[in-house]
Q: What sequence folds into this?
């Protein structure tokens, strides 16, 4: 893998740190008038999802990380792995539970997810921003309620629990924002 | 059709009106103090030897010569101004553009405005007082704090920079996650150069961020190994008469009770160039005319350089240097 010098550090560059691939978020140039220049770098560890700051001496280089994002559609799970397919090449790839993390509860068959590969292995699965899922359980709400009051919890087919307005009923399909985990609307029929 | 906004100045009208006001206040102050405003060339066939400073250069064609010559853009007007002092000029100041290669960031623009002045017969402490007077005039700040470099390291990091071992310096760096900055192969000793580099990192990241919050602070007596063009402290050869001003996380000014020993100056130039060679950096020609002037004699004086753009950032509470420049580097 190529090495990158601090003057190539910019948001989005993937580098290796402590054996983990990281995404650079910011690179700030720091230099005392009469002294050594440094790069104060903010980065996100891609596996643990931790954001941290690391300072490098200006001009130092670090190993790049072979990380790429691919758009794959979700097929099914066998309980141990979650299988995805590239709709153009029909190549399939399996991600484990660690790569899925919280995304498990937003997986809908045939939805296109972003799979982050490190050295060819999936490390992060990002669902689409919006998914449509059926409600399997929720208390019957009061008639005439509109969105805006506190709402009530609803359990979805995937096991996710979302707060929904009181008028939304069991069996209905709703649209959820996966980034916030919040109810967006009823699904278009 | 959409027209790109890239032609626009990076600083607002409000910022640039304030800039004009600050410049005129500063000129008025020096006029009352009878300090002479001067202008010196921004180009020179020689430049500074500092290991951590790189000058930009330009190619000059002389119609009376077939040879083209390289000229350096000044990183500061120091050598020309000292040549004037050696020639008998009184206390002088100038407001000038300076240029530094490889410096772009929140507080750095490759071309910036410097206020530099020299006061005959002033000690370091007298000049610190005058810098404070100017800050109070421009920023309306309370009287500044004062602390030595050594005191601050002791207070914030429990490190005695004079007597503690290199191992202790390194262990503090590692504690803060700077193990990647420690020179590879470190066992128990560092070169003075590497020790200073680690101290600069700790100062920048762990001390500068904590001092000068409420009022500006003058940090005095940098170690002799970081003296730059300052005199060595006559009461302690480990110390220099170099000071810096910091305010709200910004390094604002750097000053010296000026070194006026030509031999010592020459030695420092040579040491810098030795270090440059070691680091694989270009060797810089010494400014011989400056050394000749020192030989004749620089009167006892103190001098300081203050970044006008950073001063303006503080006056206006701006977060990026681009906001106080008419056109920053990105807007060129």
A:
């Amino acid at each position: 893998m190529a090495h990158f010098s601090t003057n190539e550090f910019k948001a989005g560059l993937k580098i290796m740190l402590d054996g983990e691939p990281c995404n650079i978020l910011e690179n700030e140039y720091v230099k005392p008038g009469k002294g050594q220049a440094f790069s104060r770098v903010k980065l996100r560890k891609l596996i643990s999802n931790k954001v941290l700051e690391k300072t490098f001496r200006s001009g130092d280089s670090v190993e790049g990380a072979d990380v790429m994002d691919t758009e794959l559609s979700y097929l099914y799970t066998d309980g141990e792995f979650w299988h995805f397919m590239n709709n153009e090449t029909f190549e399939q790839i399996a991600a484990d539970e660690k790569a899925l993390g919280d995304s498990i509860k937003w997986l809908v068959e045939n939805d296109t997810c972003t799979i982050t590969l490190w050295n060819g292995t999936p490390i992060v699965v990002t669902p689409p921003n919006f998914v449509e899922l059926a409600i399997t359980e929720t208390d019957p709400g009061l008639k005439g309620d509109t969105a805006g009051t506190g709402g009530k919890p609803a359990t979805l087919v995937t096991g996710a629990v979302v707060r929904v307005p009181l008028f939304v009923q069991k069996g209905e399909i709703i649209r959820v924002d996966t980034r916030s985990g919040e109810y967006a609307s009823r699904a278009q029929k | 059709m959409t027209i790109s906004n890239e032609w626009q100045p990076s600083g607002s009208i409000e910022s640039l009106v304030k800039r004009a006001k600050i410049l005129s206040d500063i000129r008025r102050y020096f006029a009352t103090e009878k300090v002479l405003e001067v202008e010196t060339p921004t180009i020179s066939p020689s430049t500074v030897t500092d290991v951590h400073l790189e000058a930009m250069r330009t190619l000059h064609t002389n119609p009376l010569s077939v040879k083209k010559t390289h000229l350096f853009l000044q990183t500061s007007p120091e050598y020309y101004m000292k040549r004037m002092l050696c020639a008998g000029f009184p206390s002088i100041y100038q407001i000038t553009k300076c240029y530094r290669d490889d410096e772009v960031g929140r507080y750095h623009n490759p071309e910036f405005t410097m206020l530099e002045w020299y006061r005959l017969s002033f000690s370091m402490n007298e000049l610190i007082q005058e810098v404070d007077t100017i800050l109070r005039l421009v920023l309306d700040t309370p009287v500044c704090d004062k602390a030595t470099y050594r005191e601050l390291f002791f207070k914030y990091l429990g490190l005695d920079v004079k007597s503690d071992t290199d191992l202790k310096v390194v262990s503090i760096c590692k504690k803060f996650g700077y193990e990647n900055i420690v020179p590879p192969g470190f066992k128990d000793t560092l070169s003075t150069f590497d020790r200073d580099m680690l101290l600069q990192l700790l100062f920048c990241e762990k001390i500068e961020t904590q001092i000068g919050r409420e009022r500006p602070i003058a940090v005095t007596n940098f170690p002799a190994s970081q003296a730059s063009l300052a005199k060595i402290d006559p009461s302690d050869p480990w110390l220099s008469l170099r000071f810096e001003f910091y305010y709200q996380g910004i390094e604002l000014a750097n000053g010296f009770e000026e070194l006026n020993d030509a031999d010592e100056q020459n030695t420092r130039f040579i040491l810098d160039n030795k270090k440059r060679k070691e680091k694989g950096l270009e060797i810089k020609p010494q400014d011989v005319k400056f050394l000749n002037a020192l030989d004749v004699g620089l009167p006892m004086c103190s001098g300081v350089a203050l970044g006008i753009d950073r001063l303006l950032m503080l006056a206006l509470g701006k977060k990026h240097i681009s906001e106080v420049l008419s056109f920053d580097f990105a807007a060129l």
About this structure: Chain B touches chain A through 25 residues (CB under 8 Å). DSSP finds nine helices and eleven strands in chain B. The radius of gyration of chain B is 21 Å.
